[in-house]
From TrEMBL:
Protein family membership: Belongs to the ribF family.
Name of this chain's protein: Riboflavin biosynthesis protein
One matching Pfam family: FAD_syn
Function: Catalyzes the phosphorylation of riboflavin to FMN followed by the adenylation of FMN to FAD.
Keyword set includes Nucleotidyltransferase: yes
Catalytic reaction annotation: riboflavin + ATP = FMN + ADP + H(+); FMN + ATP + H(+) = FAD + diphosphate
Keyword terms of this UniProt record: ATP-binding, FAD, Flavoprotein, FMN, Kinase, Multifunctional enzyme, Nucleotide-binding, Nucleotidyltransferase, Transferase
Keyword Nucleotidyltransferase part of the UniProt annotation: yes
InterPro entries xrefs: FAD_synthase (IPR015864), Riboflavin_kinase (IPR023468), Riboflavin_kinase_bac (IPR002606), Riboflavin_kinase_bac/euk (IPR015865), Riboflavin_kinase_dom_sf (IPR023465), Rossmann-like_a/b/a_fold (IPR014729)
Riboflavin kinase domain residues: 192-317
Pathway(s): Cofactor biosynthesis; FAD biosynthesis; FAD from FMN: step 1/1; Cofactor biosynthesis; FMN biosynthesis; FMN from riboflavin (ATP route): step 1/1
Length: 321
């Protein structure tokens, strides 16, 4: 179902504007609830001959207001980096994604200007799907009733979608995914996402410490405020050949050897090294082994890594690749 995705900052240029079926949201994680929304957009676009489109925001509005109010602790963690979010949207059949910069201009935009400038003039919206509690415009003054009034005036249809729930009746939301990842509950996260949690990135050069210790690693930068709990995980690495590769990975700040606090994902391939520098690798998280620890010396760290690799091999022996 993956489509060719056209990405625009703010809006398509006038010559490339095409009437669209639109949904609006942050779509962090593109979880099962998001997938239900995107399926509706896809169907409406197909039935009406429109372009299936997502409008999303960067940064997250809550992140913007947390910085504005000097309350960084109120900014949400991020389930997905932008690359992974766009990949997931393409896999859900979206043909166009518009990233609106959430800044003072957008925060202060009136609800009517949001409709007339963004939805009508720049996106040529003909069909719109939003959640039942969707609010927009300065001080969240716009609501569904205003959208429906504007739709009758400007020629677009407005549909709403109730919350999507799991088999236990709990709402599927990005907050639920963040909570699961924060406590290392990968099974719950996978149930909410509909797929294993993953992080992708280009393999970068590290300090080569793993190689010195006998455990060479693939190093990937991680987006700031990553939602996943720091720790040691059994993972699968994609992008290094026709088949995924079994691996054990550390997600965290490397407390034994560094003190700058930057989060890094380091994956040690269990079936041998790979020429991976510069390649785009997708790491799927399958099972959490333990939390990140600070060891007193490198021999203790090496022994722990060896034990982690043994436990990861045992996992794959039972569950397969």
């Amino acid at each position: 179902m993956k489509t060719s995705l056209h990405l625009y900052r703010s809006a398509p240029p006038p010559a490339q504007r095409t009437p669209c079926a639109l949904t609006i949201g942050n779509f962090d994680g593109v979880h099962r609830g998001h997938q239900a929304i995107l399926a509706r957009v896809r169907q409406a676009a197909r039935e009406r001959g429109l372009l299936p489109t997502v409008m999303t925001f960067e940064p997250h509005p809550r992140e913007y207001f947390a910085a504005l109010n000097q309350r960084p602790e109120l900014a949400p963690t991020r389930i997905s980096g932008l690359r992974d979010k766009l990949e997931a949207l393409a896999c859900q059949g979206m043909a166009q994604v518009v990233i609106e910069r959430f800044n003072a201009r957008l925060a202060e935009m009136s609800a009517n200007a949001f409709i007339e400038d963004l939805l009508v003039a720049r996106l040529q919206t003909r069909w719109l799907l939003v959640g039942e509690d969707f609010r927009f415009g300065r001080k969240r003054s716009g609501d569904i009733d205003l959208l429906r009034e504007a739709g009758m005036m400007h020629g677009f249809e407005v549909q709403t979608l109730a919350d999507i729930t799991d088999r236990h009746g709990h709402r599927v939301s990005s907050s639920e995914v963040r909570t699961a990842l924060a406590v290392g509950d990968l099974a719950r996260a996978q149930d909410l996402l509909g797929r294993p949690y993953q992080i992708s990135g280009h393999v970068i050069h590290g300090q080569k410490l793993g190689r010195t210790l006998g455990f060479p690693t693939l190093n990937l930068r991680v987006a700031p405020r990553c939602a996943a709990r720091s720790g040691i995980y059994v993972v699968r690495a994609h992008g290094l050949g026709a088949q995924p590769r079994p691996a054990v990975a550390s997600l965290g700040v490397r407390p034994t050897v560094e003190d700058h606090g930057r989060v890094l994902l380091e994956a040690h391939l269990l079936d041998g090294p790979a020429d991976a520098y510069g390649k785009l690798v997708r790491v799927e998280f399958l099972h959490k082994l333990r939390d990140e620890e600070k060891f007193p010396d490198l021999p203790s760290l090496t022994a722990a890594i060896a034990e982690d690799a043994r436990n990861a091999r045992a996992y794959f022996a039972v569950h397969g690749l």
